């Protein structure tokens, strides 16, 4: 009898630890993205929360347009706008307790600001005066992360460390659809599930990785399906429905906090603007597609819900816009001031103590600066 | 007066002891990697630690180097001091993204707000008959990355002292363990193990007057042997053990070369783009007027690390070092 013929008949006894962890069925995401706005579920949402989400969405949209305008004025080197994705950004920031940690990608300035970060400091990386403009410990926001998906294992490690210390802390990590193809995404999810770390992964599936559409990124039925293989639940949510994203993330965070381990949430959304101000999106997508998504705008969806139910009127809308305008004016004014930079900082933060080699180089730059200064005074 | 017994110990034992002492002294020290728990590591350096400190502090991780180092970053962000084991030199490469893009520069990008006290233990180098991917000398990659300290012991005592210093450092340290010296023995007092001077100090292992051999890690014993052999030909060689590649101890090295007037850099990794080129340039810049001959390099060939049956032709040995020393009679020939 050949080995192939033996199949099914012979099954060796697996080693004792070899047991499937879970029945995959409850881990599987629903076929369609979960929605709240425009459904019966909306009635159960606290009106105060809906109003808060609305105000933050309007402010976030204004932040995106203002930051984009600042690139045109040369005040920002580059800006990856999250217009269209504000519901994800805002919900990610609002579901966390103060002690929790947020791990943003390079596109998630808005989530950091919604979490309380100074809007100017959040732009330091993109302005180019330093890499991270804030102390990550202050609001528990990790540095905006440019290499894709590399922040995910950090979130897992931090959540794991917090649990080892007995702290009731959850980490929420953001990643794009393209980032899910990176090896670090896989390693982070695997570690998180094996360690049952209190971490939530939020994939903002905005359709594109720069120009590459999702279909060329993955053959999986959805990105949320990827969770099952790791042994964690996958959840699919309408990323333009702020109430739905908030609800799904709240459940995932509570699940993690209660010791239930990680969750992978895929929010289906759309990047209305180009990849960054430097990108030409007309090369890879048609205006018709963009228009379809504009009709499903996160602000419009929420505004409709609130006005329908008499929770928001013209005055309320105007108040939200005025608050956003005030934020934009302040951002503009402060970003129009030239940052004061100290070239000696180049050497200050490489090591706890500069090496002898760095000290020599520092002396060289100091001498160059002194000579420059002297030349200027001559 | 009590006399302390100096018993022979292996470098691996000294490393284990350093880990145990560091974990005892500081509850934030965590050991993690592939097979470091129950097995005690493939080189047994973490032997017994899981039993003593528990799985939460000595963790068998999933098999994923980027994940190991990446999660260590998050753990360090939350106040732990992870000591990460990379099983073999060439298997650390999947973790390079985390190492270079995050570990090395988190302090810098956060203006000092978020230093990462991570020690990355990498068994490196050849001479143990390892098959492909088990014998690389990867130090040049680490040296080329600002933000990392890079150290490598050559003696049992240094293995202990340097590892304690690495774990205590608030900066990330790549701790290169010369795997062919794991079983080398030295008389060492395990009752009162000593620390080392701060990271960044080289040490003169043998004093001499006619030339300096500048070396580190697995090549230190080879150079000491070469120095002994060279006495027969009238050479009195000084041997400097760098111990730390970053920071580099220019002072000790330059002082030695100024005394002797001649220098050979010896290491296993290839010479093109290797550490020797950097070291030779630094020595030349500082000692030009004292030099009687160009600074020479004796290094591995510029080839992928050879199969075990050929590695003895690749590794710099006593003869090749002595040949180079012979060539230091520069003015006589030119
Ligand atoms: C490791 C890595 N490779 C490539 C890039 C260049 N890059 C920046 S953004 C991007 C696309 C990312 O797409 P996605 O993850 O979907 O996030 P999105 O931009 O849509 O928010 C690429 C390829 C990078 N930042 N990091």
Beta-strand percentage of chain B?
15-25%
Overall shape of chain A: it is globular
Largest sheet of chain A: 5 strands, parallel
Radius of gyration of chain A: 24 Å
Cα gyration radius of chain B (Å): 20 Å
Largest sheet of chain B: 7 strands, mixed
Spatially, the strands of the biggest sheet of chain A line up as 1-2-3-7-6
H/E order of the elements of chain A?
Answer: HHHEHHHHEHEEEHEHEHHHHH
Which two chains have the most extensive interface, and how many residues on each? Answer: A-B, 41 and 48 residues
Bound molecules: thiamine diphosphate
The spatial strand order of the largest sheet of chain B comes to 3-2-4-5-7-6-12
Distance between the termini of chain A: 96 Å
- Count of DSSP strands of chain A: 7
Q: List unreliable stretches of 5+ residues of chain B.
A: none
Shape of chain B: globular
Total number of helices of chain A: 15
Structural class of chain B: alpha/beta
Number of beta strands of chain B: 14
Mean pLDDT of chain A: 95
Descriptors for this entry?
heterodimer; A: 378 residues; alpha/beta; 5-stranded parallel β-sheet; two-stranded antiparallel sheet; B: 334 residues; 5-stranded mixed β-sheet; 14 strands; 20% strand; globular; binds thiamine diphosphate; thiamine pyrophosphate (chain A)
Structure description:
- The complex is a heterodimer of chains A (378) and B (334).
- In chain A, 44% of the residues lie in helices and 8% in strands.
- Chain A has helices at 3-6, 47-72, 86-94, 109-114, 124-127, 136-139, 151-164, 183-195, 226-230, 242-257, 287-294, 298-308, 314-335, 345-348, 356-377; strands at 101-103, 171-176, 199-205, 208-209, 212-213, 234-238, 263-268.
- Chain A has a five-stranded parallel beta sheet with strand order 1-2-3-7-6, sandwiched between helices. Chain A has a two-stranded antiparallel sheet with strand order 4-5.
- In chain A, strand 2 (171-176), helix 8 (183-195) and strand 3 (199-205) form a beta-alpha-beta unit.
- The longest helix of chain A is centred in the N-terminal third of the chain and has 26 residues, at 47-72.
- Chain A is globular.
- Chain B is α/β, with parallel strands linked by helices.
- In chain B, strands 3-2-4-5-7-6-12 form a seven-stranded mixed beta sheet, sandwiched between helices.
- In chain B, helix 1 (11-25) runs parallel beside helix 7 and helix 3 (65-77) packs parallel to helix 4 (96-103).
- In chain B, helix 7 (156-168) links the parallel strand 6 and strand 7.
- Chain B is globular and about 60 Å long.
- The model of chain B has no long low-confidence stretch (mean pLDDT 95).
- The longest helix of chain B has 15 residues, at 11-25.
- Chains A and B meet through helix 7 and helix 8 of A and helix 3, helix 4 and helix 5 of B.
């Amino acid at each position: 009898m050949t080995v192939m013929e033996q199949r099914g008949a012979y099954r060796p006894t697996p080693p004792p630890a070899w047991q499937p962890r879970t029945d995959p069925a409850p881990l599987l995401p629903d076929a369609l993205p979960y929605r709240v706005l425009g459904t019966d579920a909306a009635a159960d949402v606290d009106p105060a929360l809906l109003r808060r989400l609305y105000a933050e969405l309007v402010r976030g949209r204004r932040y995106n347009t203002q930051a984009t305008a600042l690139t045109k004025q040369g005040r920002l080197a580059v800006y990856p706008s999250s217009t269209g994705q504000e519901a994800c950004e805002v919900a990610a920031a609002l579901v966390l307790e103060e002690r929790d940690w947020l791990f943003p990608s390079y596109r998630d300035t808005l989530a950091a600001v919604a979490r309380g970060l100074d809007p100017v400091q959040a732009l330091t990386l993109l302005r180019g005066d330093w890499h991270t403009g804030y102390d990550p410990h202050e609001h528990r926001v990790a540095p905006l992360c440019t290499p894709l998906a590399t922040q995910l294992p950090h979130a897992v490690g931090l959540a794991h460390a917090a649990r080892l210390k007995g702290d009731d802390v959850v980490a929420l990590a953001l990643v794009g659809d393209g980032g899910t193809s990176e090896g670090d995404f896989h390693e982070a999810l695997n570690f998180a599930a094996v360690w049952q770390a209190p971490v939530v992964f939020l994939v903002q599936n905005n359709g594109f990785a720069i120009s590459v559409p999702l279909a060329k990124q993955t053959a999986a039925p959805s990105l949320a399906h990827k969770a099952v293989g790791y042994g964690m639940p996958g959840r699919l949510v309408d990323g333009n429905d702020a109430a739905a994203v908030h609800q799904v993330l709240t459940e995932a965070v509570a699940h993690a906090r209660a010791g239930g381990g990680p969750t992978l949430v895929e929010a289906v959304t759309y990047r209305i603007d180009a990849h960054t101000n430097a990108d030409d999106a007309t090369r890879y997508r048609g205006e018709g597609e963009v228009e379809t998504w504009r009709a499903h705008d996160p602000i419009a969806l929420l505004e409709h819900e609130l006005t329908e139910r008499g929770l928001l009127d013209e005055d309320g809308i105007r108040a939200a816009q005025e608050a956003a305008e005030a934020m934009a004016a302040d951002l503009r004014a402060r970003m129009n001031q030239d940052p004061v930079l100290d070239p000696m900082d180049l050497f200050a933060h490489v090591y706890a103590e500069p090496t002898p080699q760095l000290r020599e180089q520092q002396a060289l730059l100091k001498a160059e600066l002194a000579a420059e200064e002297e030349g200027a005074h001559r | 007066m009590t006399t302390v017994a100096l018993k022979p110990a292996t470098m691996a034992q000294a490393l284990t002891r350093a880990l145990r002492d560091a974990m005892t002294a500081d509850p934030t020290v965590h050991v993690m990697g592939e097979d470091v728990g129950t097995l005690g590591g493939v080189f047994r350096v973490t032997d017994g630690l899981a039993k003593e400190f528990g799985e939460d502090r000595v963790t068998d991780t999933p098999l994923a180097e980027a994940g190991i180092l990446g999660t260590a970053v998050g753990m360090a962000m939350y106040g732990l001091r992870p000591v990460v084991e990379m099983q073999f030199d060439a298997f650390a490469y999947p973790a390079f993204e985390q190492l270079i893009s995050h570990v090395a520069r988190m302090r810098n990008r956060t203006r000092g707000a978020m230093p990462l006290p991570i020690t990355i233990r990498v068994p490196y180098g050849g001479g143990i008959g390892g098959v492909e991917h088990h014998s690389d000398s990867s130090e040049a990659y680490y040296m080329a990355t600002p933000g990392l300290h890079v150290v490598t012991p050559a003696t049992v005592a240094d293995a202990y002292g340097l590892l304690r210093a690495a774990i205590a450092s608030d900066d990330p340290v790549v701790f290169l363990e010369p795997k062919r010296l794991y079983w080398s023995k030295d008389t060492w007092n395990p009752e009162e193990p000593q620390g080392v001077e701060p990271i960044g100090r080289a040490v003169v292992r043998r004093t001499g007057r006619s030339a300096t051999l500048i070396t580190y890690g697995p090549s230190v014993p080879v150079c000491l042997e070469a120095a002994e052999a060279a006495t027969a030909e009238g050479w009195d060689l000084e041997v400097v053990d760098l111990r730390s590649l970053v920071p580099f101890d220019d002072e000790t090295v330059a002082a030695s070369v100024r005394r002797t007037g001649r220098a050979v850099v010896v290491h296993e990794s290839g010479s093109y783009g290797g550490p020797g080129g950097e070291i030779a340039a630094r020595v030349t810049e500082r000692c030009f007027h004292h030099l009687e001959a160009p600074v020479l390099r004796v290094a591995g060939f510029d080839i992928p690390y050879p199969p075990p049956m050929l590695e003895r032709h690749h590794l710099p040995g006593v003869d090749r070092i002595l040949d180079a020393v012979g060539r230091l009679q520069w003015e006589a020939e030119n």
